Amino acid sequence: MQHELIRKSEANRRAAQLSEADRAAFTWDAAATALDGLSEGGLNIAHEAVDRHAQGAARDRVAIRWLGRDGARRDLTYGDLAQETARFAGLLHHHGLQPGAHLFLLAGRVPELYVAALGALKAGLTVTPLFAAFGPEPIRMRMEIGAADVLVTTAALYQRKVADWRGELASLKAVIVLDGEAPDGCLSWSEEMAAVEPMEGCSPSRPDDVALIHFTSGTTGRPKGVLHVHQAVLAHAVTGRYALELGPGIIYWCTADPGWVTGTSYGLISPLVNGATMIVDEAEFDTGRWLDILADESVEVWYTAPTAIRRLMRAGPEAVEGRSYPRLRHMASVGEPLNPEGVLWGQKVFGMPFHDTWWQTETGAIMIANTAAMDIRPGAMGRAMPGVEAGVLARDADGSLRECGPGQTGELALRAGWPSMMRGYLGEEARYRKAFEDGWYLSGDLVTRDADGYFWFVGRADDLIKSAGHLIGPFEVENALIEHPAVAEAAAIGLPDETAGEIVRAYVALNPGYTPSQELEREIRGLARKRLGPAVAPREIAFIASLPKTRSGKIMRRLLKARELGLPEGDTSTLETEDTPARSATP
Ligand code: WT7
Questions:
Q1: What ligand 1 atom has the least distance to the C-alpha of 368?
Q2: What's the pTM value of the predicted model, to 2 decimals?
Q3: What is the position in ligand 1's atom list of the atom closest to the CA of 470?
Q4: What domain range includes position 527?
């Protein structure tokens, strides 16, 4: 099972930010000196990420180097960011939006998105970035759960995805439109920003005040609004330095969109807190464009995802080897299992391996990583970060938790108490409490740990689907499908895919009077795509006479998956009745 170890040279080890000695000596209290803080024990992410740099020698350093889709470029220095975010914070206060109000972001990767996020934190609001490719349904659901007070978006996204139902969201007091002419009932970013009085300083938030609310999917029920506090910035600072080798002036590119937690923790907060210069590319993945950016922008540290790595691998070594990357010195990956082949491919074509890292929306920051000084075992996610205690837990017959020995499979758990630990699921206290037991946070991932403390990913303990790094709740997909009049019930599962890791496949049982046809399949798929957006909608739909369910009525998605893949069906003792096997996708 194991590939050959990738050994780090002495020079590598010496250049790394985290040595074994630092690791042993680490405490969060000592690390807290990396932060500036506000007077009287206050803490605000925007101050740590922007203002404190702008007040010092880094004022004229580029904070964000923006690359527009069509070749436009824009640099924002730390000083520029300080001014712009102060304006936006002033704008929010001017419109009566007070600390604690909920701001939602829905836009592509334009500079204003970053200004708005940091400006809102400065003003003490909570920030929820949404993925701009979401369809109207996931957007509406999240803004309802999050009781959005204000939305920052573009004119086109507003018209296409929000305008229809805006009137039904009573909490929503203002919509700010970033570009062009503001539609009826919306404020114009450029007009407001030009007129407003900038805010002085930062809102005096406390370390335990909520700063970010990220939505993540569950297997049942509605998406969960994960609460993160200003204190999380300590974990962003430390992990950026130790797992991603960030530091002042380092040119860094995180390819994730802020609509997902990686794009906020490591595509916005961590690099700025560490004083880096971060590349923001507005465009979507493109082999040539990405390699050009790595080469031409002199990227030193690159944080990306397995799906993108696999796409680059498919393009062949010539594509990568035709350019040179003299400044590149650290590459890391996150979000889904990174195949050993991907790690080795990095070594072969870039002369350095990809360093896998593991974390989740709930953990807020990297918990497990291959840090730069570590030898790499291709296929392993790495070791627990300093200050993080990770365990592998299994249940005894009496239901109590116990720690597994080396090589045994169990659930990955983290000892509660790290700074970026989620502090709640919005409005769902019971669901939040269920995520913790005996002082551990239970991740829902199955892993093994070897004798040297390296963690190996085995799979999810639940039915969540990971497609191109996006965590997708089957329930949300199923809800959209049953809105079609022909659909009686639906089940969504993930099927293995060479590039995306998994793709979403759905099974639908039809209402009386409807018969399976290719046309109907296309129609249902089209509706799902429109409501959910392309990142979440099923790629394939198969008709099935009825869904396998437990006697208590729970859909047995795992059984559908086992049948589809020809795997053992496992324990089916709770299966309700005889049911019909899945028919093929093309009727
Ligand atoms: C789930 C969390 C990490 C921030 C972005 C995703 C999977 C994450 C790895 C990895 C295998 C991984 C897990 C995890 N995952 N990193 N290195 N190897 N799987 O955050 O959307 O909350 O997803 O992504 O299943 O639980 P998220």
A1: 17
A2: 0.91
A3: 21
A4: 464-565
